[in-house]
């Protein structure tokens, strides 16, 4: 029994480099009840199972190697882009936390989330981007730690890294849910440079909503 997986990279830079890998799987009789073990085997920070698309609404479930998440940013952006690339763009992703609005703008895919949908993180504001660059993931053996520093505070540009061993993710290359929470906390639009070179854009909206955007590219097709 084999399961096909499309792997995309989400929140790439302008040239399609870097980005956070995401596995996308069409749910089937072979995957039902095995989602967590499949996500663990794949080892991506998140794996999405697409349960169906109906009238522009896609129903998905999101798993880290350790647990299911009610909402996550990079799986939402990546799945929305993947569906559009196959000729089936959607306006809504139906996730455990609620309905996530989707829109497309050129090579950017936008999703809208709420800060309270995201996991709780331990926040560490550092003095400089160089301090963020110098971090050693071994210093964070458990928990969910988001560390950041301003690159250009006036322009809303910051540098970040995220370590989440409790989710089975030693270091996350790009974290959309954390971007949602941080945007709400700081009360302003952000441009986030995370990981090895990923790029996340956010826009603060009224009513506790935050828009998150990024570029996605197809990486490879595999089977497990």
Q: Explain this structure to me?
A:
The chain has 224 residues and is an alpha+beta fold. The chain has 2 domains: 4-113 and 213-223, Diaminopimelate Epimerase, Chain A, domain 1, CATH 3.10.310; 117-207, Diaminopimelate Epimerase, Chain A, domain 1 (Roll). The protein contains 4 helices and 15 strands. It has helices at 35-42, 73-85, 129-133, 176-186, and strands at 4-12, 20-26, 46-54, 57-63, 68-69, 92-94, 99-105, 108-114, 122-125, 145-152, 157-164, 169-172, 190-194, 198-204, 209-223. It has an 8-stranded mixed beta barrel. A hairpin with a 4-residue loop joins strand 11 (157-164) and strand 12 (169-172). The longest helix has 13 residues, at 73-85. The protein is globular. The relative contact order is 0.20. The model has no long low-confidence stretch (mean pLDDT 97).
CATH superfamily of the largest domain: Diaminopimelate Epimerase, Chain A, domain 1
CATH structural architecture of the largest domain: Roll
Structural class: alpha+beta
Oligomer: single chain
Order of helices and strands: EEHEEEHEEEEHEEEHEEE
Number of helices: 4
Widest sheet, order of strands: 1-2-3-4-6-7-8-15
The total count of strands amounts to 15
The amount of beta strand, in percent, is: over 45%
What's the level 1 CATH class of the largest domain? Alpha Beta
What distance lies between the first and last C-alpha atoms, to the nearest angstrom? Answer: 8 Å
> Into which percent range does the helicity of residues fall?
10-25%
Q: Would you give the CATH topology of the largest domain? A: Diaminopimelate Epimerase, Chain A, domain 1
The shape is globular
Mean of residue pLDDT values: 97
How many domains in all?
A: 2
- Gyration radius from CA atoms, angstroms: 16 Å
Unreliable segments (pLDDT under 50, ≥5 consecutive)?
A: none
The major β-sheet equals:
8 strands, mixed, barrel
């Amino acid at each position: 029994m084999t399961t096909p997986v499309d792997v995309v990279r989400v929140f790439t830079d302008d040239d399609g480099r870097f980005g956070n890998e995401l596995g996308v799987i069409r749910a089937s009789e072979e995957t039902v009840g095995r989602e967590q073990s499949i996500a663990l085997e794949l080892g991506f920070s998140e794996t999405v199972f697409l349960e169906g698309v109906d009238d522009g609404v896609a129903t998905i479930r999101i798993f880290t190697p350790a647990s299911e998440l009610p909402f996550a940013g990079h799986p939402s952006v990546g799945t929305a882009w993947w569906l559009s690339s196959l000729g089936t763009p959607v306006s809504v992703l139906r996730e455990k936390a609620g309905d996530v609005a989707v829109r497309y703008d050129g090579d950017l895919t936008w999703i809208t989330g709420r800060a309270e949908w995201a996991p709780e993180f331990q926040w560490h504001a550092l003095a400089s981007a160089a301090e963020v660059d110098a971090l050693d993931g071994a210093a964070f053996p458990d928990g969910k730690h988001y560390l950041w520093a301003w690159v250009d505070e006036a322009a809303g540009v910051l540098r970040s890294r995220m370590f989440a061993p409790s989710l089975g993710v030693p270091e996350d290359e790009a974290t959309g849910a954390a971007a949602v929470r941080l945007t709400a906390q700081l009360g302003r639009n952000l441009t986030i440079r995370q990981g090895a070179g990923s790029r996340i854009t956010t826009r603060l909206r009224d009513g506790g909503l935050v828009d998150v955007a990024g570029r996605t590219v197809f990486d490879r097709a595999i089977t497990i």
